[in-house]
UniProtKB/TrEMBL annotation:
Keywords: Ligase. The gene is ligD. Residues 28-279 form the DNA ligase D polymerase domain. Pfam families: LigD_Prim-Pol (PF21686). This is Non-homologous end-joining DNA ligase. Its EC number is 6.5.1.1. GO terms for molecular function: DNA ligase (ATP) activity. Transmembrane segments: none annotated.
């Protein structure tokens, strides 16, 4: 029988708890649920009021992996949903507003992806993001070099940047900004990506062209577009190991000498949270947001 658990007054059926989702480490679905339950205090504020896109991998990263934006069939009535405008027409999407909703979604086995705007103001970005994606043989070590340049460049415009691992190969930089049209945020991010390429011609690239990618870091500015989403802080990723998109300190970026030094899995997060708390908490403080020039 599927066990029924009560979470803050909501009854949840949590299934297949012994199922191994990450064969490389034997990490089970039960451990996935435990991870999300124990990181909820820091994860939920980054999900709050942002429509969630799910990258689901119910049979593990080696099984079927598929993206879900619309409300999944069977979603409980108590899970908050909202109509979201899209280019192809409005859609109804999930908002993860509380612990029961988080655990229901975690039971689907998913990565969480969110846009740079809140549901109350669709298309008005309150976050600026850069996805630093290394082209082999470049690694996250080269991403750190580009990240440090971008931090200084953003600071020159009065914008404070914070970093997290992507949970895959690269880094994400994020900054809180005064709400601005997503088109304006995208254009500003593209300008800075182009500047990075000029300043670091052997390292940075602002175009996705595959033939140009080897050995360089693609500064993906496009995730600021209203229709795009980015992996939410603290989400697990559908990778061979249970890696997490993990906030990191700038000192860790400065000291990065190998990809392993910036690779974190679910068991690493509890001690990091004890030591650092939420390193991305400043993104949640509207008063500390910077304005786009």
């Amino acid at each position: 029988m599927t066990p029924i658990t009560e979470v803050e007054g909501r009854r949840l059926a949590l299934s297949n708890l012994e199922k191994v989702l990450y064969p490389a480490t034997g990490f089970t679905k039960g451990e996935v649920l435990h991870y999300y339950a124990t990181t909820a205090d820091v994860l939920l504020p980054h999900l709050l009021d942002r429509p969630v896109s799910f990258l689901r991998y119910p049979d593990g990263p080696d099984g079927q992996v598929f993206f879900t934006k619309n409300v999944p069939p069977g979603t409980p009535k108590w899970v908050t949903t909202a109509e979201v405008p899209r280019v192809e027409g409005p859609a109804r999407m999930v908002l993860i507003q509380d612990l029961p909703s988080l655990m229901w979604a975690a039971n689907l086995v998913t990565e969480f992806h969110t846009p740079q705007w809140l549901i109350g103001a669709p298309g008005d970005a309150d976050r600026l993001v850069f996805d630093l994606d290394p082209g082999p043989p470049a690694t996250v070590v080269e991403c750190c070099e580009v990240a440090l340049w971008l931090r200084e460049r953003l600071a020159a415009d009065g914008i404070d940047a914070y970093a997290k691992t992507s949970g895959s190969k690269g880094l994400h930089l994020a900054a809180a900004i005064h709400p601005a049209p997503s088109e304006q945020a995208t254009e500003y991010a593209k300008e800075l990506a182009m500047e990075a390429e000029k300043a670091l011609p052997r390292r940075a690239l602002h175009r996705m062209t595959k033939s140009l990618r080897p050995g360089k870091v693609f500064v993906d500015w496009s995730q600021n577009a209203a229709r795009k989403t980015t992996a939410t802080p603290y989400t697990l990723r559908a990778r061979p190991h249970p890696t997490v998109s993990t906030p990191v300190t700038w000192q860790e970026i400065e000291d990065c000498a190998s990809p392993e030094s910036l690779t974190f899995t679910a068991p690493d997060l509890a001690p990091r949270l004890q030591d650092y708390g939420d390193l991305l908490a400043p993104l949640l403080d509207a008063e500390g947001a910077g304005g786009l020039p």
